[in-house]
Amino acid sequence: MKNFIRAENISYTYKSTNGDRLALNGVSLSIAAGEFVAIIGTNGSGKSTLAKHFNGLLLPTEGKIFVDGLDTADEKNLQHVRENVGMVFQNPDSEIVAAIVEDDVAFGLENLGIAPEKIRERVDLALDDVNMSDYKNFAPSKLSGGQKQRIAIAGVIAMRTKVIVFDEPTAMLDPQGRREIISLVKRLHAQGLTIIYITHFMEEAAAAQRVIVMEKGKIIRDDTPREIFTDVKEMKRLGFDVPVAADLAYRLRRKGFKLPQKILTAEELAEALK
Ligand SMILES: Nc1ncnc2c1ncn2[C@@H]1O[C@H](COP(=O)(O)OP(=O)(O)O)[C@@H](O)[C@H]1O
Ligand SMILES: [Mg+2]
Questions:
Q1: Shortest-distance atom of ligand 1 to CA 214
Q2: Would you write out the chain's pLDDT as a tens digit for each of its 274 residues?
Q3: Ligand whose nearest atom lies closest to the CA of 214
């Protein structure tokens, strides 16, 4: 499949009076249209800095990044880049801009100068996509964290970008809110969207097709969830948890149970133990 995003050896340094901070240190990657990629890494490993390069919010200090074949460092490409790559951040409160749900979802479209009846149509479809149609006329402040985050996602869906980058969208949510978001993300991927999903929940990362592991501004692993999360000893050494079933399989094997090497899910573990 066609590479929609391609980073060539990008580095990024935050400059401040307290000194410079090298946040990305020679990152290269390609993401194809339609992929579902998770990015994990300890705090400060550069995940958010990388995410902001995907839609030109940050420009690399060194190297180049291309979105849909266009260099984000070229100002005339930025509009196309932003129309194709949407972002969802951690804190839904900081993303809500309007006093009524449907106005909030419409906000990005109004800025694109789309006709009002078209806007209403797109907003209705987007609210339906995130199962929030019943809340169209609500004040966002009355909603739960998970509902607010779904409103923020509806705003991006309404823009009809090809890619959505999620930067720890579930970090501030309760388990119920987290489940709502991850099932919505899976649905969006099934509809054909390209998903880049930053998380520190390993069960969420395991839902992706591919997991990128970052450490100190570099990509240190890039593989399937199965390969990454069944390498339990190495993941623990790097300071990560692994999904519960993978961890349990690892512990049982160490106690002498004869189990297949690459168990990732509870179903696989149950089947192996039968
Ligand atoms: N605005 C900023 N100014 C200076 N340093 C920053 C800024 N944002 C992030 N950093 C630093 O850059 C590094 C990477 O940060 P970030 O991309 O936010 O990591 P992550 O999202 O993986 O936690 C960290 O060392 C962080 O302290
Ligand atoms: Mg971050």
A1: 22
A2: 578 999 999 999 999 999 999 999 999 999 999 999 999 999 999 999 999 999 999 999 999 999 999 999 999 999 999 999 999 999 988 888 899 999 999 998 988 888 999 999 999 999 999 999 999 999 999 999 999 999 999 999 999 999 999 999 999 999 999 999 999 999 999 999 999 999 999 999 999 999 999 999 999 999 999 999 999 999 999 999 999 999 999 999 999 999 998 999 999 999 999 8
A3: 1
pTM value is: 0.96
**Residue ranges per structural domain of the chain:** 3-94+162-241, 243-274
> What architecture is the 3-94+162-241 domain classified under in CATH?
3-Layer(aba) Sandwich (3.40)
Q: How far does the centroid of ligand 2 lie from the alpha carbon of residue 43, in Å?
A: 7
Nearest protein CA to atom 18 of ligand 1, as residue: 48
Q: How many CB atoms lie within 10 A of CB 266?
A: 14
Closest listed ligand to the CA of 45: 1
User: Can you say whether the dihedral through the CA atoms of 51, 56, 60, 64 is positive or negative?
Assistant: positive
- In angstroms, the CA 41 to CA 185 distance is 20
CB crowding 60-74: b at 16 or more within 10 Å, else e: beebebbbbebebee
